[in-house]
Amino acid sequence: MILRSSEAGDGPPVVLLHGLFGMARNLGFVQRALAGRFRVVGLDLRNHGDSPHGPDMRYDVMADDVAETLASLGISGAAVIGHSMGGKTAMRLALRHPKAVGRLCVADIAPVVYPPRNHPVVAALRGVPLTPGLTRAAADAALAIEDAGLRAFLLQNLVFGDVPRWRIGLEEIAASLRDLEGWEPAEGLSWDGPTLFVSGARSDFILPEYRPAIRALFPAARFVTIKNAGHWLHVDNPTAFLGTVEAFLGAG
User: Fold this and answer.
1) Of residues 68, 171, 172, 246, which has the active-site annotation?
2) Residues 25 and 71 in one domain
3) What is the CATH number of the domain that holds 49?
4) Are 90 and 80 in contact (CB under 8 A)?
5) 5, 18, 83, 84: which is the annotated catalytic residue?
6) Domain tally, the chain
7) Catalytic residue at 184?
8) What would the pLDDT profile of 85-111 be if each residue is shown by its tens digit?
9) Cα gap 16→190, rounded to integer Å
10) Residue 168, domain extent
């Protein structure tokens, strides 16, 4: 699958991969900040943003999407930065298509199976009545999620009009939650290029006990923790996140 891409800048390639329920523009501030020195490509992963929809959301399949798209853009040896679902996709890309990746930055996710977290979000999205004339205010009131910031983030995926619709492949995502929250074994695979795992200090997505599993796949992995940040570390502390990314990209 060829994914929808957006580009800015010239220079060595940097690829940005967003998280679940997101899209490339969620990392737009990173793209704009790096565009002065790099060719920065943001991708909408399958069933997200303006990319095509498809039923299979295993990380091997999504990594293959990215590899196919990068090849179509003439990109290899890219610095790949992925958050959450995008981080798992980036890891799988490095393992399956090592020549596509020159540097790997994984934001607040590990190559492990997580307990279910996203079923309530899917249920809340399904509960929004997609009736003609639906307004943003009405959709916000109908979305049964307490966190106003999360509601605003999720409602970016709602296309208003005569017949409102979800931009994301909501049913495909719902059917794939086990795959998205999981991690298939990668026996015999590893990637020894420069790798940085960035976590939020208030997040529990990268626990100390996950480091052996990380280093088994990525033996050169280093770890950085962003203060005053949770899982959405690039939103909670964008200055520190961007500084960390820039330092990693500039490292020898």
Assistant:
1) 171
2) yes
3) 3.40.50.1820
4) yes
5) 84
6) 2
7) no
8) 999 999 999 999 999 999 999 999 999
9) 21
10) 119-175
